Structure formats: C-alpha cells, structure tokens
C-alpha cells in the first residue's frame, strides 16, 4: 500500500476513506495555533508520482468510493493539475462518489466559478474550510490570512458552485478576555454564510507552538477551562440562525464533549446535553485522550 510522507492529517469523517497526498505541507502555513505542517516544506507532488500511488491504491482497494486529497490545502493547486488527478481517480475507481480536500478561503476566492464548477463535475464536491473565528481581530491575532468578509465571500462562492463545505470553529481561541467577541462574531458569520457541515474543535497548543501563539496574539492570553469552553459551545449552538440547515458535530479528538445533531432542528437537544455536562461534568473526554 502507499507509503505516506508523515505526519499525515485528515478530518475525522475521512478516517475510513482513501487518502492521496496531492501536496505535502500547507501552502499558507502561518496560522499561529497550528503545528500540523510546520516541519514540512510545501511541495506540489509530480503528477507521475501521484498517478503511481493512485494505481497502487486501486490494486489494493479497487472498490474505494471516497478519496481525501492531502496535505493541508490541495485546492491551492492549479485547476488543470487538480483535474488531471481527479480524472485519474475516476478511471482507477469505478465506484468513486466523492473527493474532498482542505481549502483555505483564499484558495476558493482565487478560483473562478467556472473552475470550481469543473472540479465539482469531476467529483471534488466537499471542501473542509477552517473558519476558526468570526472575529476580525482574532483572525489577525492568529495570522489566519483571512477576514470575516473574505471567509463569507468564499463560503458563498462555494455554495453558489454547489460545493459542500465542512467548516470548523475553534472554541477557546480568544481566551478569557475575547471569548464574547469570538463567539458573537462567529454566530454572526455562520448566520449569514451557508455551510453544509459545522464542527467545533477545542484550542490545543502543542508545546513547540505555544510561545509562538502567545507572541502572535500580542496581549496576555488566559486559556479557558472545560466549563468556559462548554459555555462558549452553548452560546454558539444557541445563537446560530443558519441560512440553510447545518449538520453539526464536535467529534474531533480535541473536544471535551462529543455532540452530533442538526441545526436548528436539534438545537434544544444539543443544549440539554451541554447543560448536563456543565452541571454534572459527565461524558467529558479524559484530558489524556485529547489531541490533534
């Protein structure tokens, strides 16, 4: 089977799917909270190398139906390059139904709607987009390279091209002092911009990135405990009035509390689960089991 260039990351929902590394590392790689690709230099892998791995994977798993294109932001690839990979995947896997990848908001905005439509026609139909926060100030402090306005524009563009978006928000990203600003801005953004899926992560700073994050934040940062994180999650779930129904999850390993439901349909049930955790502290993931 394929020998991956490690470390290899993928969303929880891609755990049982085939992963093909179209790129190595992350093209942007400046987010202060993220250590995932700091040890990798961004590289566009040659098509012949990617094609060889697709052929090898097809021999081992000919019935694969879903493929995730790693590493950090495969959508940054030129459209013709991506289309060549998608065409190879379609030939190698007759039952292929979905291809997905991480995408920065800037990746989406750089491509023309006609390009995004062509990619969707070739089964790249799900993008994982890190929103992180709806606060412009916090986005600057974490060096996200995006603003609430550009994120909204990217999400609307993807929606107009009939691409599904799985968005992520990081609880605790504003610390104690900017918690209200973080959650309120995120509520406002997600109440205007259409997404198909929404997941929360919990701020998790690896040792090597902690000081870098604090330096970039530019003011005293006081981390929040599980109770404060749950209160942020509660405010988020209670406040979002999405333009389209959202499939909501908090199943990433960083989260203290795993939740699953649809918004707004399951709002009251989700809030009851959070309230139970706030009151009794039950069903929280042990700290030693949390991570990226």
Task: Please estimate the helix content.
Answer: 25-40%
Radius of gyration: 19 Å
User: Low-confidence parts lasting 5 or more residues at pLDDT below 50?
Assistant: none
CATH topology: TIM Barrel
Number of DSSP helices?
A: 10
Number of strands: 10
Oligomer type: single chain
Strand portion: 15-25%
End-to-end separation in angstroms reads 25 Å
Overview of this protein structure:
It is built from 10 helices and 10 strands. By secondary structure, the protein is α/β, with parallel strands linked by helices. The protein has a single domain, classed as Aldolase class I (TIM Barrel). The strands form 2 sheets. An 8-stranded mixed sheet has the order 1-4-5-6-7-8-9-10. Strands 2-3 form a two-stranded antiparallel sheet. The longest helix is centred in the N-terminal third of the chain and has 14 residues, at 47-60. 40% of the residues are buried. The model has no long low-confidence stretch (mean pLDDT 94). This is Radical SAM protein. Residues 10-241 form the Radical SAM core domain. It holds the Pfam family Radical_SAM. One of its GO terms (molecular function) is iron-sulfur cluster binding.
């Amino acid at each position: 089977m394929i020998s991956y260039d490690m470390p290899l990351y993928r969303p929880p929902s891609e755990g049982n799917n085939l992963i093909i590394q179209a790129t190595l590392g992350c093209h942007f790689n400046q987010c202060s909270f993220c250590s995932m690709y700091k040890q990798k230099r961004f590289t566009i892998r040659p098509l012949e190398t990617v094609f060889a791995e697709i052929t090898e994977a097809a021999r081992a798993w000919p019935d694969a139906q879903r493929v995730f294109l790693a590493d950090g932001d495969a959508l940054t690839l030129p459209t013709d390059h991506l289309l060549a990979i998608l065409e190879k995947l379609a030939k190698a896997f007759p039952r292929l139904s979905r291809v997905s990848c991480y995408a920065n908001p800037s990746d989406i905005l750089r491509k023309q709607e006609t390009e995004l439509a062509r990619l969707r026609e070739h089964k790249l139909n799900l993008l994982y987009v890190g929103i992180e926060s709806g606060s412009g100030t916090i986005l600057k402090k974490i060096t996200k390279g995006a603003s609430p306005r550009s994120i909204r524009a990217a999400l609307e563009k993807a929606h107009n091209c009939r691409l599904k978006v799985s968005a992520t928000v990081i609880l605790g990203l504003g610390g104690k002092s900017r918690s209200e600003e973080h959650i309120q801005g995120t509520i406002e953004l997600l109440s205007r911009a259409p997404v198909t899926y929404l997941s929360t992560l919990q701020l998790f700073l690896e040792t090597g990135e902690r000081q870098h994050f604090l330096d970039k934040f530019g003011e005293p940062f006081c981390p929040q405990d599980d109770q404060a994180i749950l209160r942020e999650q509660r405010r988020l779930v209670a406040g979002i009035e999405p333009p389209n129904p959202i499939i909501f999850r908090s199943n990433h390993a960083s989260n203290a509390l795993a939740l699953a439901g649809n918004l707004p349909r399951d709002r009251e049930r989700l809030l009851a689960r959070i309230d139970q955790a706030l009151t009794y502290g039950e069903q929280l993931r042990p700290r030693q089991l949390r991570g990226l």
